[in-house]
């Protein structure tokens, strides 16, 4: 039997989901909690096989409860079951140590299958969550061309975006006109653009200038 602790502050949700899970031949809901503090206490006391954790609860939210459980019991298998898909919930929950992430809009049988899979050591994520994670990973892996610019070159680029001429840049930075031209040449090369206009467009496109 897969022993389950279900933490959710909505009584009707707990009643409905617990009844369905308890009807499964391989599952037993051994305890319920309506707040994060109680969830932590019961998790560490009972050491259930699976913890179903809501995110928004009174006294202590699901993210903090997950952190505290994992800190004391790293092997705990926690499945987030929530209505939230925003970044402020998804990433902190997974970083806190949640093994799987499901939505309350999932069918009861999908929750049951997620429990079985997580119990076996697998990670089950809603497709939307998987998409968010992949996009975040791609964003981290993407190398921006402007990351190659030196601090001075970035300063010159921003001044180009302000419409300043080479001479005006030289005067303001107290450097020679020749040095400004070298900086501009380096900027064009590193940003892989052909002229100053394209460099300025790049700066606005990538949020370097607002």
UniProtKB/TrEMBL annotation:
Residue(s) carrying 4-aspartylphosphate: 54
Subcellular location: Cytoplasm
Gene3D superfamilies: 3.40.50.2300
Main localization category: cytoplasm
Keywords for this protein: DNA-binding, Phosphoprotein, Transcription, Transcription regulation
Top-level taxon of the source organism: Bacteria
InterPro entries noted in UniProt: CheY-like_superfamily (IPR011006), NreC/VraR/RcsB-like_REC (IPR058245), Sig_transdc_resp-reg_C-effctor (IPR016032), Sig_transdc_resp-reg_receiver (IPR001789), Tscrpt_reg_LuxR_C (IPR000792), WalR-like (IPR039420)
Protein name: DNA-binding response regulator
Organism expressing this protein natively: Compostibacillus humi
């Amino acid at each position: 039997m897969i022993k389950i602790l279900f933490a959710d502050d909505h009584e009707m949700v707990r009643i409905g989901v617990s009844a369905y899970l308890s009807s499964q031949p391989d599952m037993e809901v051994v305890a319920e909690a309506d707040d994060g503090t109680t969830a932590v206490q019961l998790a560490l006391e009972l050491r259930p096989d699976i913890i179903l954790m809501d995110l928004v609860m009174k006294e202590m939210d699901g993210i903090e409860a997950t952190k505290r459980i994992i800190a004391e019991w790293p092997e705990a298998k926690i499945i987030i079951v929530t209505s939230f898909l925003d970044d402020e919930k998804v990433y902190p929950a997974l970083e806190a140590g949640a093994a799987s992430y499901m939505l309350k809009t999932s069918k009861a049988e999908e929750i049951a299958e997620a429990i079985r899979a997580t119990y076996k050591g697998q990670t089950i994520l809603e497709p939307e969550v998987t998409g968010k994670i992949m996009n975040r990973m791609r964003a981290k892996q993407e190398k921006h061309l402007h990351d190659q610019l030196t601090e001075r070159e970035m300063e010159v680029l921003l001044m180009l975006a302000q419409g300043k001429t080479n001479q005006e840049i030289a005067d303001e930075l107290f450097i020679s006109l020749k040095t400004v031209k070298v900086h501009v040449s380096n900027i064009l090369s590193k940003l892989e653009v052909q002229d100053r206009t394209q460099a300025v467009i790049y700066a606005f496109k990538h949020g370097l200038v607002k």
